[in-house]
Amino acid sequence: MGKMGRYRWLCLTGACCLLFLTACDGEKEQEKKDSIRLGVSIYRWEDAFVGTLRTELETQVKEYEQRTGVKVVLDIVDAKENQSVQNSQVERFISLGCDALCINIVDRSAASNIIDRAMDADVPVVFFNREPVEEDMNRWDKLYYVGADAKESAVIQGTILADAYEEDQRSLDLNGDGVVKYVLLEGETSHQDSLIRTEWSIQTLKDRGVPIEKVTGGIANWDRSQASALMEQWLAEYPDEIELVISNNDEMALGAIDAIEREGVVRDIKLVGIDATPAALEALRDGSLMGTVNQDLQAYAGTIFEIARCLAMDEPVEDHVELEDGKYYRSAQVGVTADDMID
Ligand code: GAL
Predict the structure, then answer these.
(1) pTM confidence score
(2) Which of the listed residues 52, 193, 293, 297 should we mutate to test ligand 1's pocket, taking the one with most ligand atoms within 8 A of CB?
(3) Which CATH class is domain 35-148+296-331?
């Protein structure tokens, strides 16, 4: 081959390579999905906190669609506190071709069925708010969990109380007898948050030297009306003893406030919750609630979506979200009191 021939040959091969690369690029472009489908199952539709989280998730998905033009089909269903209902919902999601699932599991110790189905179909799962046991989470590298650290929520709750006591002992020790007498409202027994929140709120008060004594306590399953019924009973049983209500969440604290208001006796009982739901913030504003813990819902919901979106679009999750142990995200938390509500 002469000089010119070699030159022509080189040009031709170069052009071919360029064509090939452009074609590959085009293929990549085409591969980038312009529509994804996510299946979301909520353990109980009426749950106030999870409801707020769901609304935030919907808002963020809409914003994302508007910003990027990518269509997100968001299928949200209620598992009605029934694990077998939720298992069937997962099967339906998979048969509909969902690209990823977001699961607020009913029974956190029974994730294996969902994980089996998801693994068989190669559909990744982002669990949220109700944390599957570690053994299940370690079964597959396409399982993620988004939530808030229960110990941190409780320490913040205890700190709100301890700070108030330190500033003015009579703010909690209403009768000035040197002891703060409290009742405790607890969430579901099987929920990771209930036990840990109870333990660490009390421990924080003890560590800070607040003299506390438990009058009584009970399980109200995160629910306003169950808590209200319990508090009504306690007010009748211990009419002049209760000085403080420590609640594992806001809804139960609001239930206790309902009972106090129903009773109609003027009392200065203090109450604290966790979640910073809109109703709780209102109660902070009107002075019936003393404090709560905000779990940064924007980041919480935003991360559920971002992980699911990355998985659905085959983008590496770790490029977009900072994870613990490659699979856990815990949202930041902060205490909120009436003082923070002054605009
Ligand atoms: C907790 C929350 C409760 C309830 C529960 C449901 O984290 O504080 O209010 O929503 O989750 O799993």
Answers:
(1) 0.89
(2) 193
(3) alpha beta
